[in-house]
Write a structure and sequence with these properties.
Strand order of the largest sheet: 6-7-8-3-9-10
Radius of gyration: 24 Å
Length: 275
Amino acid sequence: MSKGNIARFENVGLRYGLGPEVLRDVTFSLESGSFHFLVGESGAGKSSLLKLLYLALKPSRGLISLFGADIATTPRPQLPALRRQIGVVFQEFRLLEHLSAFDNVALPLRVAGIKEADVNRHVTELLEWVGLKDHMKSRPPTLSGGQQQRVSIARAVIARPKLLLADEPTGNVDDRMALRLMHLFEELNRLGTTIVVATHNMALVDGLGYPILRLDAGTLATVAGSGNKSAAREWRESRESAEQQARAQARARRERRRGETDEQDADPPGIENFL
């Protein structure tokens, strides 16, 4: 995905009804392919900010641009196409209770017209990865909160959205599963998805080291991350660095061979004396 701003807020304000503003003069941008944590105390406005990002709310004032489109001037019929580029992990899950875990996760792929054979393969692999291999046919009411959360996450990421918004995605799982789910987000981010994770888990924020969007009483500040990296991220970056080095060495060898061939094909010095 080419670099550029996938989302931009300029002096955005939000109020509910006639009440006070819950977000005030919010200005920031999300570069395509970036990863941010969204933090703040309860009531600071995190969920409201996410709702603006996935177009569930309109701002009271200010400019919001998503995927290069000014939301205020985008015709209403075009908004669903923008929403389909966004994956959302809801804090309250919002699963369809009459569908199995498998069918909940498969829904975005089926709406997109993906072949059923591919749907079955991708959904099965992802549900196995998040530890729900034995619950694919279970309906949400029979699943625990943590299991429902993992189904919600799988549904949000299955279609590889351009923008993924996650509201407390690790709130109902243990630390081991929380880290595993964050590795899933990291891998999706490596493939180009822009990610914003709202969380109260500051140990997770510090451990992964990504930049922070910090909300305090409705105002936003961008803070540099700790610089720490997960073990999986360090291993991946080390592998990618080794692969890049190997490719560079291979190019250098090809260029040397090409240069040697050119020298062999060139006329030897003084050949003009024989012509």
